[in-house]
């Protein structure tokens, strides 16, 4: 089983341009989107989070179940669901404003030991920036990495939620010894500072960098370097594209027996090309639809 740990929320997506454009509520949150994408791809997946018992929270849980995601690790609470107000530029790239004060996902507690069959654990986005939940997610990362679980980290920076950027950057560096696969966007990399070489030296076996229309890149601890182009197509918006890449990586890597640090670092060029190309195809489908709507397995043959 693959477990995705982190927040769920409601994206309020504008349906046209302008400050007073009508807003359509969509199920979202980086980790939530990753879990749904994995479920749609057919991976055995669980979601580990705290979700509100309000109407939005019920819809979020229903969305997980519809995608085939196990919800037994989901904590529930009466606090409101986080809202993310999306803004889209002319190319469909999304920016966000958040309404997260006192919301349910911020009150996540460290769960007991995860099931013994967990093969991988993914983290990222707001859940690692908003306390007190951030410390619980961090403790989960350290604990499960310590017992040998494959971990993926996607920081997916939301700068407006980070009051002390330098403190966050230091905290990010402290996570790296516990990370097997670091995936981040070019914008995230620039905001965080440092270099791929520095991050690899700190712990991860591989770093995957998404570069928008320029495609995807991987660098590994063993010195491998592979680039694949983006898949061109119509772009409705980019909401959920990076989350889909996370899911595609975690879904495809087991086909190459690469859910361990040693195997990931040793993966050859052909296997990385296959994995990154699969992720690029999956992300392109998500970008072709409004809101985070990742593809199903039947849409990604081969």
Structure explained in plain terms:
- It is a single chain.
- The protein is α/β, with parallel strands linked by helices and 302 residues long.
- Helix content is 33%, strand content 23%.
- The chain has nine helices and 13 strands.
- The chain has helices at residues 30-41, 55-66, 133-146, 165-175, 186-192, 196-202, 241-252, 261-266, 269-287; strands at 2-5, 9-14, 23-28, 45-52, 74-77, 83-88, 94-99, 120-124, 150-154, 181-185, 206-210, 216-220, 225-228.
- The strands form two sheets. The protein has a nine-stranded mixed sheet with strand order 5-4-1-8-9-10-11-12-13, sandwiched between helices. Strands 3-2-6-7 form a four-stranded mixed sheet.
- The longest helix is centred in the C-terminal third of the chain and has 19 residues, at 269-287.
- The mean pLDDT is 93.
Fold topology:
Blueprint lengths: L1 E4 L3 E6 L8 E6 L1 H12 L3 E8 L2 H12 L7 E4 L5 E6 L5 E6 L20 E5 L8 H14 L3 E5 L10 H11 L5 E5 H7 L3 H7 L3 E5 L5 E5 L4 E4 L12 H12 L8 H6 L2 H19 L15
Parallel strand pairs: 1-4, 1-8, 2-6, 4-5, 8-9, 9-10, 10-11
Antiparallel strand pairs: 2-3, 6-7, 11-12, 12-13
Helix pairs in contact: 1-7, 7-9
In spatial order, strands of the major sheet run: 5-4-1-8-9-10-11-12-13
Q: What is the H-and-E element order?
A: EEEHEHEEEEHEHEHHEEEHHH
Share of helical residues? 25-40%
Compute the number of strand runs.
Answer: 13
What are the salient characteristics of this protein?
23% strand, 302 residues, 13 strands, alpha/beta
Brief characterization of the structure:
The chain has helices at 30-41, 55-66, 133-146, 165-175, 186-192, 196-202, 241-252, 261-266, 269-287; strands spanning 2-5, 9-14, 23-28, 45-52, 74-77, 83-88, 94-99, 120-124, 150-154, 181-185, 206-210, 216-220, 225-228. The protein is α/β, with parallel strands linked by helices and 302 residues long. 47% of the residues are buried.
């Amino acid at each position: 089983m693959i477990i995705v740990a982190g927040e769920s929320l409601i994206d309020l997506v504008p349906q046209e341009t302008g400050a007073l454009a009508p807003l359509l509520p969509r199920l979202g949150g980086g980790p939530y989107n990753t879990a749904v994408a994995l479920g749609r791809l057919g991976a055995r997946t669980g979601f580990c989070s705290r979700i509100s018992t309000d109407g939005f929270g019920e819809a979020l849980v229903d969305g997980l179940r519809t995608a085939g995601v196990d919800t037994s690790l989901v904590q529930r609470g009466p606090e409101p669901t986080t809202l993310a107000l999306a803004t889209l530029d002319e190319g469909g790239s999304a920016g966000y404003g958040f309404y997260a004060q006192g919301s349910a996902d911020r009150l996540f507690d460290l769960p007991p030991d995860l099931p013994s069959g967990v093969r991988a654990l993914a983290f990222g986005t707001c859940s690692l920036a908003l306390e007190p939940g951030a410390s619980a997610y961090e403790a989960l990362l350290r604990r499960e990495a310590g017992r040998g679980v494959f971990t993926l980290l996607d920081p997916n920076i939301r700068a407006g939620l980070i009051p002390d950027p330098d403190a966050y950057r230091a905290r990010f560096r402290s996570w790296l010894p516990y990370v097997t696969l670091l995936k981040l966007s070019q914008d995230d990399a620039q905001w965080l500072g440092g270099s791929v070489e520095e991050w690899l030296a700190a712990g991860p076996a591989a770093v995957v960098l998404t570069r928008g229309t320029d495609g995807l890149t991987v660098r590994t601890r063993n010195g491998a370097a592979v680039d694949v182009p983006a898949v061109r197509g119509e772009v409705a918006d980019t909401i959920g594209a990076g989350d889909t890449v996370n899911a595609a990586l975690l879904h495809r890597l087991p086909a190459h027996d690469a859910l361990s640090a040693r195997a990931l670092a040793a993966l050859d060029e052909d296997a990385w090309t296959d994995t990154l190309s699969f992720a690029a195809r999956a992300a392109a489908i998500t970008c072709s639809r409004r809101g985070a709507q990742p593809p199903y397995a039947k849409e990604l043959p081969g």
